[in-house]
Task: inverse folding
């Protein structure tokens, strides 16, 4: 149950439209719903104020479809499924509204919410091969209610490509910089922008790329301030964190 | 020159209190002031809207003192000097207001600004040996205008120590989680909090710690969403990024 | 070689009945001769007394089936086959009582023994993807005569899931903590429990997980006392050691 | 939070005596609130019941002396100080009974307790250079109330040295196997003994030893069952775990 | 931004025709605005002037065929496609002149240009298994207008094979030394030749070769002057750089 | 170049019959010219005098068959083909006497020579999974004219298995010790035997074995004298070197 | 003896000003002059056409002074001493013209030659801490007869600093790009320039810099063509190679 | 006690010149003489037929002197002390014949034996910085009764230096090839010689040398047959093994 939903429930209790007992029942069913393969943690929604996410890797199509059914039955509107195969996408019950984004290996059940973040999240990549990770990040951010601008293939070896987007960069509230190989994009963007930059190293490359180690180390050693790093190929993590930063304001309004 | 200072200057031009020529002169002297050992980048202040920072490692006491003198002459109010030795601290001219914080190896010229960030930054460490990195982060954040709460020695091997501070954790706008050895603090805090968590691995430990590699990898692989990582022992980077996030709101007010 | 035997040998040299070269050879082999290997071997047979174990990886179905037949013919009641494929399971002769546990890739010939260990072994995992390793550990422990409690998917990013099982944790005699990614589970459990914790890093994860290196290093650097580590994905080793600890008492009764 | 408490809270929301925001905050903190931290803490105090431990590395002589004074004033009889320098030892107040063991870099305040463990802990090393780590392990075990047998310099390159101690090995309840370089000692002992073997890799060696990596990997890959590993040079951790295992019985008597 | 432009801006601020915020934004973007990106881009087009290059890895046959069609339509004569599969080669429209070189995984659209470099580029390999990388390098250099001499299988374990080609080595203008395993070829050639040597480590080998790490480190540590290194298996990069060096003269004639 | 030759050259320069540039080139190539490469080559042919060796990995069945035909036509009696697949074996012309050893992935054309080495080569393995590497070593040694004794599955976790073969170990002239996982076999044998021990780490294992790194480092750090190491899984190299040592005597008779 | 010197000698022989015998004597004394600690390789000068270089690391001041004396006695005009300590500099005989450059740890005996290279070598660094390596490169290039332009502290985190030097970059014949931390400078320059770029990773940084590994991998994975890499901190190697490239033309005039 | 000594003793028993009881006493005192810090393993002498060796690293001057005294009192003629500091050398009692070799950090008590090996051991190094390791190897071999030829500074970057010693290389019975940096010497020598080559990687180098890793990997991947490797900087191990090989013949005379 999302924080928004709990607040709504409490407000319904406060204004009398939902009786205490019904609210209690809803909350009681919350934290540990046993599904057989995993304890779905609805409470996590509460604490972190976002929609529910299913990590699709290592789960069978049937398992994913089952979790989706259960979540929807539990009132969850939007569900994001990451690292989802085409086969798993085909197993989702046609009774749910559902879109599968192949490049980002992401399935989204329910409608994308209206963007309610403070500003725009820019998702930039060094090359075209980084696009699957970028789409995972961008779709995650969109599913969590953010306006997203994509700047793909603006790697530092052709600096003018990046510089021609200075306006998007200067106006972003958060930037996700995604690159494999030498991973220099994060530093260059970090030096240009005055907003938080979330760097995502990718495993794109060969040889001394060592599965993403080169861009990972490069990004961790960035000499630009305001840059932090998530795991190699972790587009979801970057999109999630960017959304969190982009929604910060509401909390303290 | 800080963004604030440039805005102030422009406003003085707008209201006529500073003539165009004088403003032009001030701006002209800006971007590249040649000091001999380094091109001080005052323009950087403009782009990133913060006070000036000197990275003290590898600079002689005389070099640091000289840069400070030049910056102050250029109108810079607050200057943060990181990785500063006691000897370098002793070399700062007594004519500048100056405090040296030994544990964090940080010197601050000028007065700490009033906190003007949106919320509170929590700086948490796994152990007492992580405190130098934590102080670097905390003092950086304070020097950049943030309210900081310190939660030191709340490592996961004694979970109740951390849980007894749930209120600070739930109320933070940004949390900096600092830990060496197994670096589990970031994941545990990331699972509890609903705000961005900046993880700082430290080189504290021995043996298979491999100079901070263990906590670095641990933090990069955090299963908690909302966690990103900076370089090993990079307290400054974490404090800077936390401040950036904590000041985001103003931009879009 | 006893002093008496050496004296006898020297006397044979002195009286010429043993040539110098032969005596020299005997002396060279001396330190290892008197050990009684058969006894050693016998001893090993004695002390295991429960299930024999076959390491299935790299063996053909036919080889495994053959070993099982031979062991059973030799009177072995329970046989544990680890890293066993479905194909190998299908090759076991139907004349043996046999169960194949697919998740843990373990086959058990004969009946599970009655638990005769001192207490209970808790097998805990950080996520659902760690379950194959956990089942290998749990079934091994059961096959060796232990009561096992499974706590799966209690990773530290949702701390309340783990904390809701404090009673099982406090009552365990040995705990096997299994986790991939950041491997923080071992430290958190190690800080809560007052019994030996055997940590099993898993290769679950991606990117900077580097095949289990992240959780391995994390567990080796655990700041909690009472934690030791076995090889990545080594569920069997953890189950075997846990059983050994859980049966210690009998020896000294 | 009990169901009753949640119902009460919801009723307060319903009757307006608790605002929605406050209720939301209470629900967010709920999963961790009811644990009874003080009790947990107390529990930890109870279960160790022997020596308190101070990790001396990174603490000044004055800090250590101060902690010792405070602990003793608090009624603590025996205090173990690990990684203690000679200078720190000299700073301990002469009013406390105190012995400093230089080789193991361990100081012990108060008298060693009478051994109350079930059996004997064997501490074995591959070479003489491993003795500092071994003494840290052995003295830790003694300070925690264990009978300890030392078998030093019994490395596998001179196998007869180890084999001449078969009796101690077969009679041990726990064995701590300490070795640098190729770390083979743990496997050989693990193959001979029928009790838990705690392997401690040391940083002894040079070249491709890589600071203990060679023996660490060797021990993690041990083909002998019943072997687990702690961090490089972690004599204390091994001694503590060995003592824990050696005291298991009392709990279930 | 010229001084004149900044003065004009300030005057607009002073007379109120430009608001402070807009002026601030203009100043922030100032350092990059005057670069003339189109010119930069044009320049890059100019300076390559020979073959365009398509990096085929990760592109579908259809994508590659489409890019080729577009380039040809745009007037590009010669097109080099690296890391090209046989399937992609089959997808190239028969209307283009096209040759596919299987060993080097390179396709060339259009005719090879007449060599117009200053001298000869020698491409040498340690073994026959290094030939795919070597062909990538050699064909790249040929497509860029260079005379190429191939010396394959002249590894250092049979030194006379290399020494029998001393004349080619002494007459080369650039040498590309390609080797896997111990990578010694680069050092030996570097010690013999008096021209730049571009070393290409390959992933050829097994075991402690670690995917090319052994030859990479070996080449980086070459004790011969004049040797530099490109990424593992990066035949294209070596061929491109060699061509660049071999065409240097024209520029300064 | 002899002094006489240089004098002659200088005189030709002096009298103008050789231009300066030509003389310069001759002097540049001088140090390598007088080596007599053919003699070198011939020498190599002489010294091997037994089996020629083909490294089968990366060669097609047709290539291997062709090389064999050519060698046989050239008079070569015995040919050893390593890393040979079953398919390649099937492609060998039936007109050659040929045996394929599947486990060691070795094909031998022609008859094995009579053993003419000085003593016996012992090939020992830690486990049964190391047998492919061992067979590569043993068959190589046999094809090069050596008496070979196989001691398989004598790993250190069951020491008595090894010790029951003390006589073979004490009588060996060279021992090849092959092991994966912790690789302790080399050290134990090295401590027992008084002959050269060639250690072969294997990639057998999982997890922290890291493809053979664990046994490689273990063997390099062996505390037993007389042990040297070849590449991971390099059975051929060990067999070749063992044969070389076992044939040393003849040279100096 | 440098190639120039030998050519001069030959020309003197050709024009009769030096008799054959005297020339022979000079050449005879050449290749292996035994100095006790090292075979000075004067012949190397011949093959590679440059001045003599002494690698000062690991040599005593006396050894260096002795080698210098011998070289000068042998007619060597300019001698470059790299990795030279202040103490070694003080030990050079005052009878030689000598300058010591402390930052680059380079001593130069004799006068710097007039630049005779084709164009200009640009030496660029990311930060001020990279300057020692840069000076080693720049002074090496100067000592070998090159015009050098220094662009220090133009790292990518402040892109305008680099871009303000576009003219120097576009006009360079070779560029040496030196950077530690994330090493992105090489890629950015490689993307801007149309000449060979020699990348030098430095060990500047901390934490996940791992002694230069981060910038090394970053540079090896550069997505810009025309970039090759030398060893970490190898300023000399870069300067030497740059000079070689900058002098290429003469050879084929 | 060396094997020679035991044989002599047995012969004295056989010819009656030593009574059985006296021989028994001598043998009984043998295997484990307790010296306080280490069990001196005289028996090791027996098994391996060589003089005694003390590994000096990590032992105090007093400990070393004490061990020497005890060994000499026990009849040991020649004692080799490796990794010995000048201070330890000064502590050796003047009553023993003793020479200290500073470069190789080796002390030798007693006279060097007459060479009794079969042939000559060549010790070759790539550079002068490898000489300490080479001297350790060469002096070890000499102390064990071998004729040694030193070929220092014959690295592959100046191939003619190595080739000018072809005669020594072709006549060697064993070659020890010692090199740091790229370690190519072992492969080149392995390709030239027809005798066993023992490769010793050294930690000489900087940057991507990574403490000897580069030459270690290079040597392990040598494409020349007959090459095996010992630990980084392990001159003693190489000298010992070379001596073992060089003395093989006697055993089977």
Result:
């Amino acid at each position: 149950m999302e924080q928004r939903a709990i607040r709504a429930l409490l407000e319904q209790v406060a204004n009398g439209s939902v009786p205490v007992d019904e609210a209690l029942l809803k909350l009681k069913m919350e934290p540990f719903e046993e599904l057989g393969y995993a304890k779905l943690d609805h409470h996590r929604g509460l604490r972190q104020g976002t929609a529910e996410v299913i990590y699709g890797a290592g789960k069978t199509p049937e398992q994913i479809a089952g979790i989706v059914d259960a979540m929807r039955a539990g009132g969850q509107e939007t569900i994001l499924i990451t690292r989802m195969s085409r086969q798993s996408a085909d197993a989702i019950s046609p009774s749910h509204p559902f879109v599968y984004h192949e490049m980002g290996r992401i399935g989204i059940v329910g409608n994308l919410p209206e963007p309610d973040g403070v500003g725009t999240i820019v998702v930039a990549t060094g090359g075209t091969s980084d696009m699957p990770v970028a789409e995972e990040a961008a779709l995650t951010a969109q599913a969590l209610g953010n306006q997203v601008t994509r700047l793909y293939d603006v790697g530092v070896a052709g600096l003018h490509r990046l510089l021609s987007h200075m306006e998007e960069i200067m106006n972003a509230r958060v930037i996700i910089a995604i690159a494999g190989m030498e991973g220099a994009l994060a530093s260059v963007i970090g030096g240009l922008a005055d907003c938080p930059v979330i760097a995502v190293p990718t495993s794109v490359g060969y040889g001394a790329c060592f599965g993403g180690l080169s861009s990972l180390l490069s990004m961790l050693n960035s000499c630009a301030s305001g840059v932090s790093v998530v795991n190699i190929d972790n587009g979801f993590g970057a999109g999630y964190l960017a959304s969190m930063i982009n929604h910060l304001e509401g909390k303290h309004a």
Remarks:
- The two ends of chain C are 35 Å apart (CA to CA).
- Residues 120-252 of chain C form a domain with the Rossmann fold fold (CATH 3.40.50.1970).
- Chains C and G do not touch (no CB pair under 8 Å).
- Residues 38 and 213 of chain C are 40 Å apart (CA to CA).
